[in-house]
């Protein structure tokens, strides 16, 4: 679900479409969860009040981090954890993507078209996200989860 919870965007949280979570299976932890959420994304949720970056991460992680430059520190932690899936904008040319995705992730799924995120009320946004999105898998099992929904876009295996 991952609220986009940067200090400057506290009132502008956007939630992952629930069909994505359902398709990917059960997660142990969502370290970027909004405080108010109409559906669960994991067994355990850390909100901005918990500061998910400072917490221990265990098990399979779902992460829709705050967008912008701060997403890099979240991807760094997930890549070191090695077991999870992240949803971010597909800014493949950025330093963040080169540092934390291209050489560290196991697989990617680039979505066909643009996603429609949801408001914390659960209501689907009227406009699309305004940029392409990608799911990033860390760990072989998570790469397989992306492969299973490869008809949603373009699946790329980075490690075999």
UniProtKB/TrEMBL annotation:
Keyword Methyltransferase: yes
Domain of life: Bacteria
Pfam families: Dam
Keywords annotated in UniProt: Methyltransferase, Transferase
Gene Ontology biological process: DNA restriction-modification system; methylation
GO MF, one example: DNA binding
Designated name of the protein: Adenine methyltransferase
Organism encoding this protein: Paenibacillus silvae
Taxonomic path: Bacteria, Bacillati, Bacillota, Bacilli, Bacillales
């Amino acid at each position: 679900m991952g609220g986009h919870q940067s200090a400057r965007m506290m009132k502008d949280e956007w939630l992952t479409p629930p069909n994505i979570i359902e398709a990917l299976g059960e997660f142990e932890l969502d370290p970027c969860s909004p405080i108010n959420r109409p559906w669960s994304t994991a067994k355990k949720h850390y909100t901005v009040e918990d500061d998910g970056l400072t917490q221990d991460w265990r098990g399979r992680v779902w992460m829709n981090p705050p967008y912008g430059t701060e997403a890099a520190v979240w991807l760094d932690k997930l890549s070191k954890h090695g077991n999870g899936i992240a949803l971010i904008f597909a800014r493949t040319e950025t330093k963040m993507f080169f540092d934390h995705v291209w050489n560290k992730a196991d697989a990617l799924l680039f979505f066909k078209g643009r996603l429609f995120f949801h408001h914390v009320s659960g209501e689907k946004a009227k406009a699309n996200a305004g940029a392409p999105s990608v799911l990033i898998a860390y760990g072989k099992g998570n790469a397989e989860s992306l492969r299973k929904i490869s008809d949603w876009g373009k699946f790329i295996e980075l490690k075999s």
